[in-house]
């Protein structure tokens, strides 16, 4: 049966974050994505121009329409602008017994506030206690705990606080805003810490990072993965999305959730094209053999932008192509990074 994931969040008209990023992530990870829109934002890569919170009855109607017909294996929350929306969503996921990943969205990438001050208390009191996983960044965790976070040790204290004092089942405190050569996320679950490390990617195109990460956890939970495994896959997923982020607009461009599918697909396309090219050369050896130098030759193909990142993005024939009498022969297989 197709697994089903639900996002309860705001709409980003720029397509980089919010339900748009969540639905891309769900699709890339092979689950059926559904949405409950809580707020509509007029937003691009550098500013939020306007916000309209949907009426509570419309939010509830969207939720019930989806849950009572299609069903939900796991859910997530994003932008919940005010305390009334927070309380409504908390009651709905609790009453229907849905696993829920809470992304405590407070500030847009542009710096605009997406959570009213009075809603922070409601988030802590009503929603976090019913959360399966909470995914704050450094600044959100500081706001939730009142602790200053400047190191991994600080992050562990804050993560433990969110579970043991605020009542979440698990928390992943994201390390993107904590200095270091690596981005280290801290999972605290069942009294145990786990670290998930990835190279730090220096780019401004990070709009939608938190949304895509929490959506990836949700998708994996919907598939039945345990929390730690879901976080592990989500970390790899979002790292690829950041690495292949899109240079769009005048501000912070969006991450690229489709990279999870696109990179393997483009690699297969390159390998198949090169294989056919080698076959043509070998079939036409009597025409080209005299053109092959003694040191051999090669034929290569690179991944397209934005997926080409270096020599490892170029495929060729291992050992090159050599002349054998009046024929030509590929010495080895086709592979990326071959020479």
From TrEMBL:
It comes from the Archaea. One of its GO terms (molecular function) is phosphomethylpyrimidine kinase activity. GO terms for biological process: thiamine biosynthetic process. The keyword Kinase applies. One of its GO terms (cellular component) is cytosol. Residues 273-339 form the Thiamine-phosphate synthase ThiN domain. Pfam families: Phos_pyr_kin (PF08543), ThiN (PF10120). Keywords: ATP-binding, Kinase, Nucleotide-binding, Transferase. Residues 12-256 form the Pyridoxamine kinase/Phosphomethylpyrimidine kinase domain. NCBIfam families: HMP-P_kinase, PRK08573.1. PANTHER family: HYDROXYMETHYLPYRIMIDINE_PHOSPHOMETHYLPYRIMIDINE KINASE THI20-RELATED, PHOSPHOMETHYLPYRIMIDINE KINASE. This is Bifunctional hydroxymethylpyrimidine kinase/phosphomethylpyrimidine kinase. It comes from Ignisphaera aggregans.
């Amino acid at each position: 049966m197709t697994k089903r994931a639900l996002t309860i969040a705001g709409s980003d008209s720029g397509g980089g974050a919010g339900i748009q990023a969540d639905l891309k992530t769900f699709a890339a990870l092979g689950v059926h994505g559904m949405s409950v829109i809580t707020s509509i934002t007029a937003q691009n890569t550098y500013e939020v121009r306007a916000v309209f919170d949907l009426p509570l009855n419309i939010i509830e109607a969207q939720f019930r329409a989806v849950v009572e017909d299609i069903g939900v294996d796991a859910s997530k929350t994003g932008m919940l602008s005010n305390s009334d929306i927070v309380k409504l969503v908390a009651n709905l996921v609790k009453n229907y017994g849905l696993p829920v990943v809470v992304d405590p969205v407070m500030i847009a990438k542009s710096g605009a506030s997406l959570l009213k001050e009075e809603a922070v208390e409601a988030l802590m009191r009503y929603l976090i206690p019913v959360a399966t996983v909470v995914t704050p960044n450094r600044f959100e965790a500081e706001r939730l705990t009142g602790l200053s976070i400047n190191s991994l040790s600080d992050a562990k204290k804050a993560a433990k606080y969110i579970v043991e004092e605020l009542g979440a089942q698990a928390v992943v405190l994201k390390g993107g805003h904590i200095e270091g050569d690596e981005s280290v996320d801290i999972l605290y679950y069942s009294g145990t810490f786990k670290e998930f490390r990835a190279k730090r990617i220096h780019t401004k195109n990070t709009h939608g990072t938190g949304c895509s990460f929490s959506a990836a956890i949700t998708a994996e939970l919907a598939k039945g993965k345990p929390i730690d495994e879901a976080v592990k896959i989500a970390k790899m997923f979002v790292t690829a999305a950041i690495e292949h982020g899109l240079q769009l607009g005048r501000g912070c461009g969006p991450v690229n959730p489709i990279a999870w599918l696109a990179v393997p697909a483009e690699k297969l396309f390159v390998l198949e094209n090169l294989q056919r090219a080698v076959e043509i050369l070998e079939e036409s050896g009597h025409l080209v053999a005299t053109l092959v130098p003694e040191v051999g030759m090669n034929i290569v193909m690179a991944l397209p932008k934005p997926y080409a990142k270096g020599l490892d993005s170029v495929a060729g024939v291992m050992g090159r192509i050599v002349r054998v009498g009046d024929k030509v022969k590929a010495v080895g297989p086709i592979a990326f990074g071959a020479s």
